[in-house]
Specification:
The structure is a homodimer of 243-residue chains.
Chain A: E1 2-9, H1 26-38, E2 45-46, E3 55-64, H2 74-79, E4 86-94, E5 106-114, E6 128-129, H3 136-146, E7 148-151, E8 166-177, E9 180-187, H4 194-206, H5 214-221, E10 236-242
Parallel strand pairs in A: 3-10, 5-6
Antiparallel strand pairs in A: 1-3, 1-4, 2-3, 5-9, 5-10, 7-8, 8-9
EC number (chains A, B): 5.4.99.12
Enzyme class (chains A, B): isomerase
Organism (chains A, B): Tepidanaerobacter syntrophicus
Chain lengths: 243, 243
Amino acid sequence: MNVKILLEYEGTCYSGWQRQKNALSIQEVLEKAIQSITKEKVRVIGSGRTDSGVHALGQVANFKTYTKIPIEKLPYAINSKLPEDITVKHAQIVPEDFHARFSAKSKVYSYSIYNAKFPSPLLRRYVYFFPLPLNLEEMRRAADILIGEHDFKSFMASNSSAKSTVRCIKRFEILKRGNLITLQIEANGFLYNMVRIIAGTLVDIGIGKTKAEDMISILNSKDRSSAGKTLPAQGLCLMKVIY
Amino acid sequence: MNVKILLEYEGTCYSGWQRQKNALSIQEVLEKAIQSITKEKVRVIGSGRTDSGVHALGQVANFKTYTKIPIEKLPYAINSKLPEDITVKHAQIVPEDFHARFSAKSKVYSYSIYNAKFPSPLLRRYVYFFPLPLNLEEMRRAADILIGEHDFKSFMASNSSAKSTVRCIKRFEILKRGNLITLQIEANGFLYNMVRIIAGTLVDIGIGKTKAEDMISILNSKDRSSAGKTLPAQGLCLMKVIY
């Protein structure tokens, strides 16, 4: 059977989702936990890679198994073999052709900025600390420009490649609660480092270094160097995968 | 001059606020940081001890100093010598007779319960994970019984002592946001483990093991063994000290 699982993890101690030779990945830890439960060789397919240090509240993955463990017991069984920074929150049987990556319609990422005079010890693992005042109205005006289908090449890491750099941002909200500013972006797909580069560009706009209108020319330039810097991984969190 | 500072810290890696011989305390780390800045021997007075593993969003402390560092620069200077799990968020000059502990009128503590089927990797350092359903209405009825001036001896760690075990709870709210249940208690003072024992008693009430009305007899018994168990430290956070 084909099993779809919902995952939450803190990325701080991992090299990211994807299996790597000399570093510990979420995928490897998860595969080993599932294998020790099912006694089968298991390959787990994630909805997408999260980078080193990136968190997930709602990562989705699937794997094929012949296990006889009842599906509702499976999360408990797998969790008993997982460290406390990774948890399976749900498991369900899905059709054989379900593929966590190819079947995904859209994903929601959040990027959190802690905007205060001093950094927060309690939030530090989950936010990017930025002490200068940010003009949220200007940031929202610029974010609105990115909504819709565009070539996001300017917002892709320059050392990366993709068949197509066209993506569709379905929703882009900038929320503020106390000192915490959260960018929430839903898109049909994301280029490598896309959210972190967009976040860096918006911070430049928030401090007035770049104008909100300049987002149009940055987008049109299709040139990574016209956008802002890539903000650090720990502010990024994969919130939800929509199928 | 007498300096009052506002502190945030993650208690995970410390033996608590108070200096100890063979363990690392917040007080010791803070005193060393201030001393390395002011080049004076400094004694920092906290509003109260927080236990091993307990966090603070708004701990207050004071210390006497002859430093010539301008007061508005002082947090930056001290923070430059502090690890990232402790931050000074504000400093101000106060009258010589201000005493972080004796001048405090009341304190606000929160106790956070993550009430879901599976634990949360992202929140795990700051919450007590409890998987069974909790009846919030019953918990709120029981909490209301505790509001006001009472002898809270039933809710004091049995290996501890206090001149008087009478305290006044000014406010007691139980909030729910998603899977997170937060008890917020403001009182003129707290006995040793008082919030954690009250929280444990309320969880017993939330699952129906104890009735809400029983809170009256538990309170009147003045007997630690009639109350619930002491919940773990990591759910507790000192939110605010009021002067």
